[in-house]
TrEMBL record:
InterPro entries for this protein: A10/PebIII (IPR005055), OS_D_A10/PebIII_sf (IPR036682)
Matches recorded under PANTHER family: CHEMOSENSORY PROTEIN-RELATED, GEO07322P1
SUPFAM superfamilies in the cross-refs: Chemosensory protein Csp2
A Pfam family hit: OS-D
Highest classification ranks of the organism: Eukaryota, Metazoa, Ecdysozoa, Arthropoda, Hexapoda
The protein's name: Chemosensory protein 24
Superkingdom assignment: Eukaryota
Amino acid sequence: MKLRLNNFKRVTCGIMKVLFSIVLMLSVPYILCYDEKYDKIDVDKIINDDKLFNAYIDCMLDRGPCTLEYSEDFKKLLPEVIATCCAKCSPLQRQNVRKTVRALTEKRPDDFKTFRDKFDPKGEYEKDFTAFVLGSD
C-alpha cells in the first residue's frame, strides 16, 4: 500500500509540474507585452490637436495633471519604454511611439530636450532609442 501511495504522489507531482509549465508558457505573451488597450489610442488625433498634445506632454513632464486617457499609465511606462526601446510594445504600439517621438522632436524640440533630460539624464539610452525611433518593424 505504501508503494502505491508513493507512486501516486510522484505521478501527481509530475502532472502538476507539467500543468504549471503549460500555464506558464501560455501566459508568457501576456506578461511580456503591454496591455492591448493602448493599441486603441488615436495618436494622430493627439499629435494634430495642440491642446491634447500639450496636455499629454505636460503630464509626462510634471507640469500638469494626468487626467487624459491613459496619460498616467504612459507616464509610468515611459522610462521602461525608453530603456528597452519599446521591447514590450505590440507592433502598433511601437509604430505609435515612433510617430509620437518624431512629432515631438519636429514640433516641440525644447520639450523633447526636457524629455531627454528627465527620462535619460545620463544619455545612456539615447543611441539605441534614436535607432529605434528612426527604424521600422
